[in-house]
Amino acid sequence: MRLSRYDDVAPSKDQRSAFSCGEPSLDRWLTTQARQSMRSRDAVTYLLLDEESEVSRIAGYFCLSAGEVRREDAPSGVARRAPEAIPVVRMGRFAIDEAYQGKGWGAEMLREALLSAVSGGRLIGARALLVDAVSEQAIHFYKRFGFIESPIRREQLFYALRVVELSAGLFAPR
Ligand SMILES: CC(C)(COP(=O)(O)OP(=O)(O)OC[C@H]1O[C@@H](n2cnc3c(N)ncnc32)[C@H](O)[C@@H]1OP(=O)(O)O)[C@@H](O)C(=O)NCCC(=O)NCCS
What is the pTM of this model? Predict the structure, then answer.
């Protein structure tokens, strides 16, 4: 498996429309919106590619963009001593193809997404990775990995980037 930026792969229409994660809105977005969002710089999509399949197949994808949230929308661990508008990296979409689900690829891709968010946050400043969960199941998935719900919007979950840096040994606490 290899994780690549969408524009480095330029996947064909067949590759994109073969993707099926069980959530039609996420399948559709990859087919119809991902390329345009890259071009307009609204979001960067990353593809998890199975290079062992005959035609390299899209096993998963996620997309990141810059965002901000109001302090009252963030959990206390993120909101403490924060400005009124908190800068975040937003993960708008995250999905694994059904043929690859239940094999640990979701966990692996989430780790990559968190590390990418840390890199972005080091360049431009961001306190947390924010996800918008598409379903109750997705909320459980993110909580399983330590994401914390917004006190106001249950479907918005946060992971403090400082915590990622601490656990990855990228940041020495004082
Ligand atoms: C949610 C999704 C990304 C999980 O991907 P996956 O590759 O099947 O997950 P993994 O195999 O890496 O599972 C990792 C861990 O999460 C757990 N997990 C998986 N789906 C879960 C869920 N819905 N709720 C709670 N835990 C879940 C697994 O049991 C596993 O735990 P373990 O390490 O204790 O065994 C995938 O099912 C998917 O794309 N679903 C449709 C789209 C979607 O809901 N996207 C996310 C929100 S935008």
Answer: 0.94
